[in-house]
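Notebook entry, structure prediction.
Reason for the run: the old model in the group folder had no record of what sequence produced it. Starting over properly, with the input documented here first.
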Amino acid sequence: MTSTKPRRSRTAPPEAGATTSGASGTAMTGGMAIVEQLFANGVDRVFGLPGAQMYPLFDALQQRADTIRTYGARHEQTCAYMAFGAARSTGKPGVFAVVPGPGVLNTTAALCTAMGSSTPVLCLTGQVPSAYLGRGRGHLHELSDQLGTLRTLVKWAARIERPADAPALVNEAFRQMLSGRPGPVALEMCWDTMASSGHVTSLPAAEIPRALPPSPTEIDASAKLLATAKHPMIFVGSGAQHACAEVLALAELLDAPVTAFRGGRGVVAEDHPLGVSNWAAHALWTETDVAIGIGTRLELPYMRWSGMMTLLDRPQAPPHLVRIDIDPAEMRHLVPHAAIVADAADGARALAEAIKQLGRKPSASATKAAHQRIATAKRAARSEIEVVQPQLTYLDVIRDVLPRHGILTTELSQMGFTSFFGYPVHVPRTYITEGFQGTLGFGFPSALGVKATHPDTPVVCITGDGGFMFAAQELATAKQEGIALVTLVFNNSAFGNVLRDQRQGFGNRVIGAVLENPDFVAFAASFGIDAHRVTSPEALRPVLTAALAANKPVLIEIQVPQGSEASPWPFIHPKR
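New structure, fully documented this time:
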C-alpha cells in the first residue's frame, strides 16, 4: 500500500520523548516496538479502535502519524473488514488493531472471511496484565484462552512476551501471512507489556521465502494429459490473481476458455476471446475433456454444478482434472488426476513449457474454431441471463459508468448474487466478494477499506438494505476520514433471499425476513453525506456518474419493490 504522505527515512531518529538509544538497542515501549516493525515492513495504514489495553500502541501510531495513517471506525468489525478490503484489493497485508476479549471477538467474522479468501490480514490485540494470564479472575476483557480461540480462526497466532521480542514476532507474522497460501494472523500483547519499556533491536523487513519450484515429475504428468486435450478449460481462483500473464499464456497455448466464480475474476479479462463468465463456462463444461484448476478450490464445477449436498472429492474422468496450487493440502481435499504443488505463476509457466516440448502448438484454424465456439457460448449465456431483472440492467449501468480499472465491492444480496455471473470483470483485484464464508454485512465496511487504500480509483459498493444495516453507522467513518466511497443501497425492505426461500420452500411461512428500514437518504444526510434516491436503472446512470466525479462519500438508495427480483439461483446452482 502506498502512503499519501511523504515517508521519512527508515534510519531517521524516533520521535522526541518516545524512545532512547542504548548500547544494546533502543529503549521503547512494547506498543512502539510493534509499530516500528510494522513500518519496517512497509505498512502505511492501520485500521483501529483504541481502548485501555491498546493505548500504548495507539500512542505509538500517533507518534508515527507522518508515515502511518490510522483510520478510526465505530465498530471493531469494521476495523477488520477495512483491513480485509485493503488486503483483498492489493494482495498486501491489511492491518487492524482492537482491544482484546469482546473487541477481538467482534472481528472474527472478518477473520473468517480473510481465512476463507486466503487474504493476508494482521490482527493486533491486547491481553489482560501478564500476572493475570490464566487466572480466571475476570479482569477487563478477559477470555479464558484468547490465543487458543484465535488459533482456531487464523493461519497463525502468537503472544509477544517482551518489547524486545516484538520485531522478530512481527516479522514472523508477515512471513506467515505471505508465505505459502496467504492468510490472516494475529498477535497479542499483555496490557502491562505493551506499556513497559525495554531495549529493542530493530530488524529489517521480513524475508518472505519463495515457493519451491514445481516438481518436474508433476509437470510432466500434467502436460501429458493436456498435450492431446481437445477442449480443455481453466478455472482460476484467488491464488492466481498475481499470475495473469502466465495463465493467459497457458490458455492461449491450449485455446482454452478461462473462468472463475468469485476470487479469480479478472485474471483473464472477460472481454478477451478466452475470458468467459461462469455461466458461459457452464455451457462449455459438458464437452470439456481436461479441467485445469489454478489457485482455486474448484467450488464452481465440483460443488455448484455437481450439487452442494453431494460430496465429490475424487472426481472421475471425463474430464480429467489437473490442479496447480501452492497448498499441498488442497490435493487431498479434492484429489486431481494430476497435481502440481507450486505457486500459480510458476506452475502455469512450467506447464506451458512442458506442453510445448511435447509438440503442442496452437494453429490458426484451431484457434479460430475455439474462439468461435467460446463466443457462441458467451452470446448464449448473456441471452439466457437477461431474465434476471431488474438486477442485470442495474449491473449493466454500473459496468458502463465504472471505468475498466474501477473496483466493485459486493454484498450478499440479490444484486451481489447476480454479479457472480452478470457483471463482467476485466482487471484482477477489481471485484471484491466475501468468498465462501458468505459473511452478510461484509460489503460496506470492506469497501471503506478498499477506497481508503485506493483514494484515486473509483470504488462502488453494492449492498442490500439488510446487509448495509450491519455497519450503517460507518457512514460516520466515511465522513470523518474523508473516504470517497459511493454506496448503492438496493432497498427491497427484506432479506430478499430468505423471503423468497420462505415463500417458495416453506409454505409462505415468513419469519424474520421482512424489514422496516429508516429513510436511507435522511439517514445519510444526518451524517453530512450526500444522498440520492432513484427507482430505475435509467435514473441511476446520471446520479452514479455525478457521484463518482464528486470525490466525496455518496449514498444512493435504489428502491426495489419487495419480491420483484427474478431469482439468480438457476445460474448459480443449475439443475443437473
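Summary: The first helix runs from residue 30 to 40.
The old model has been moved to the deprecated folder.
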